[in-house]
Specification:
The chain is of the alpha+beta class and 134 residues long. Helices cover 34% and strands 19% of the residues. The chain has three helices and five strands, in the order αβββαββα. It has helices spanning 4-10, 55-75, 117-133, and strands at residues 17-20, 24-28, 38-42, 80-84, 95-100. The chain has a five-stranded antiparallel β-sheet. The radius of gyration is 14 Å and the shape is globular.
Length: 134
């Protein structure tokens, strides 16, 4: 059975897409730690543990995530883009990219933001635009 992230990458479930390639997909987290919080996933591999990925998918995922992080930093003013790989919520490997002003912004225990669909679409569009320039 396909994971929710596979369904998102296939377009079966709507998302706020920020970047995509044939093998990878990036979209806004619907419960973000900060505006611009992005999830980066492999499209075809549903394993829930990043270190189970084959070497090509593993390195490709990180290369794709790096490009998305550059677009994210260009679109959302921040000091850094934080990276986390937890994989506890959804059984599909995913990398969190979070715009940071301080390390406290990366605390997954804090309350998540609730943004309007219009704001989410605006943020996704900005990041997508920056990604397309790279």
């Amino acid at each position: 059975m396909a994971t929710i992230f596979t369904k998102i990458a296939c377009g079966d479930i709507p998302s706020y897409k920020v970047a995509e390639s044939e093998e990878f997909f990036a979209f806004l987290d619907i419960a973000p730690l900060a505006e611009g919080h992005v999830l980066v996933i492999p499209r075809k591999v549903e394993d829930d543990y990043i270190f189970n990925l084959d070497p090509q998918t593993y390195s490709g995922l990180w290369e794709f995530a790096a490009k998305v992080a550059k677009a994210l930093k260009a679109a959302i003013p921040c000091k850094r883009v934080g990276v986390a790989v937890l994989g506890m919520e959804v059984p599909h490997t995913h990398i969190h990219l979070v715009p940071l002003q301080s390390e406290a912004d990366m605390d997954f225990r804090k309350a998540k933001l609730s943004l309007s669909p219009e704001r989410m679409a605006e943020i996704a569009s900005k990041i997508y635009s920056e990604y397309e320039k790279l």
